[in-house]
Description:
By secondary structure, this protein is of the alpha/beta class. It folds into three domains: 97-292 and 316-417, Up-down Bundle (Na+/H+ antiporter like fold), CATH 1.20.1530.20; 437-542, 3-Layer(aba) Sandwich (Rossmann fold), CATH 3.40.50.620; 572-710, Rossmann fold, CATH 3.40.50.620. The chain is 58% helix and 9% strand. A ten-stranded mixed beta sheet has the order 3-2-1-4-5-10-9-6-7-8, with helices on both faces. Mean pLDDT is 80; it is low at 419-437, 481-494, 677-683 and 705-710.
Amino acid sequence: MLSERLIHDPLTRFIAQMVAIIIVSRALGVLARRVGQPMVIAEITAGIILGPSLLGLLWPATTEFLFPVSSLQHLQLVSQVGLILFMFLIGLELDPKLLRGRGASSVAISYASIIVPFGLGAALAWYLYPQWSSPDVKFSTFFLFLGVAMSITAFPVLARVLSERQLLRTRVGAVAIACAAVDDVTAWCLLAFVVAAAHADGFAQAGMTTALTVLYVLLMAFVIRPILGRVADKITTRAGLTQNLVAVVLLLLLFSSWTTELLGIHALFGAFVFGVVLPKEGGLAHSLAEKLEDVVIVALLPLFFAYSGVRTQLSLLDSSQAWLTCGLIIIVATLGKFGGSFLAARLTGLSWRESGALGLLMNTRGLMELIVLNIGLDLGVISPAVFTMMVVMALVTTFITSPLLAWVYPTPAQARDGAEGKSPDGERPSQATAPLPTLRPLVCVANEQSGPRLLELAVWLGGAHVVRIQALHLIPATERASFQLEERDAARTPEDPVLLPLLSRAEHLGVSVEPCSFVSRVAADDICRVAGTRGADFILMGWHKPVLRKSLLAGTVARVLRESSVPVGVYIDRRHHEWQRILVPFVGTKFDRAALRMVERAASGDTPLSITLLHVRSANDVRSPDMMPEVLEEPTGSQVTLKVVYDDFPVDVAIAESKQGYDLVIVGLGREWGLHQPWFGMHSERLLAESDTSLLIVGGAIEGDQTGDE
């Protein structure tokens, strides 16, 4: 048969399994992102789809062909290697600096979020043990394991949720990330004790194993860590991380995992501890994460999800009692984690809304829960049926986090927290002594080169007004876990490298700037949100050549022009010099009038301008040609020239006039200029494409003017 020729040995079968796993998990990942879910939801679902619960039910022959029982051992071994590397990366993520300035409250909330679900899980064990456990399993081990499984919080998933919702700089985000760090360390220590108890013949042997484990951790913290610290001090960039050094780190990682496996507390614990003790200072931790993460997360980790999916058998939940028990597990897990975190947060001074958001965040389980459950199943502590119920619980609690968080802690509430000045270190920022600004433009900076020029344009457009610039840089989101660590460091340091040239130019000009940068998955949404919550008077953006030249104005620029609640200026810089000769095409739309108001404000400055108002009228228009549009008053020191042209094709007139040596054309968004807002790509955009002069396109929401075309 063709299938037998395609998969004729264990290697080709394993390659086929990897191809199927990566394709399904990546495809589901795209769908998960569209509905605002973390990637782990897609990966868990992909594993269940490829297992007996769906693929095995609909096409059993395919499952037997692709995932026969004889091949699962190879899948398990490779996935365990991936898990060892992943737990090392999780350890790298845990930075003691996360607790700086909030150690007491974070520890209190974290331990409440462990003790309460642990207690409820242990109580639930009394109900589950007689019906769903084997007599061979000691009850003490069963209830300890169930308590730990209920107490887990998924640190990497939590970090990504906080990043995607721009919560890392809020008080809720800072406390949540610190609590998750404490939570992970404590939960894994508890799990190590449970595993030791499961392997031991009695509590005396379990105590000996625990004592050896404590000795091992102390050795890693006080002997190995200082040695690694000397190495880390010498690594400042990725180039400094040689292959020999990577080999040494990997050998130490494997030795640490091997040691904890020999101690009887699982190899994953050794990988986790080694990642925790590896110094975060310098560039060693980040460089290691960059080298390892893509392969681990894209190729190796999905194998673990597939292996877990093969072991998840929804068919075991074949009765109403089974599903009711599954529902009870979900309720107990949610009440324990959410309730413990919520009450402790309230007692430590957080508001009702912040406490609710924190409780939801701590209820995120995801991948970490699956790792714990697989350990329990391998040890025989839980049955396949309980394993399946707990996998469903992990999926549900992770899935509900994002939508419930959006409801409990919406964007306006986050903005109010930011306005109250909660920095990541729990301190209020210093208040500016400058007078209240009369103009607050939001300058969106995409790269180091565009920032200073956009700043100069914003100041120029302010004219005689006091200008307070809000500079925004959006960092493209990535799946990398180390990126979350990098972002947290950036959140503590206001000096974004992309904004540094702009800040340097602002200092030279004596202009006040409020810098802001964060990770963004949908740039247009975040630009509009920041403009609204920070009270910006208008948005100023640069234009960059699109990848596909179907439309010159497209993508993020088009969405901001369409969805912004304030005026928007899109600047195309073609002649890099001062703006003195200004052309303003005008047919009377609200965007044309907004462009005129911008010019009028710019002309109120100290530098005299030469402004040409090109008033294009229909060839059949018989109105008086010398009527100046009322929105532009003659500014003191500047010269205003009115040119009236009768023509049915305004864009042709504007293109011809723009080639007469102007420094800048300020034009309103509209179909008259081939720049119609709702249908970019459906028009020629000729003014933008054919003019060789710098352009400022004015669009967005224009308040107080209902005249003209939309």
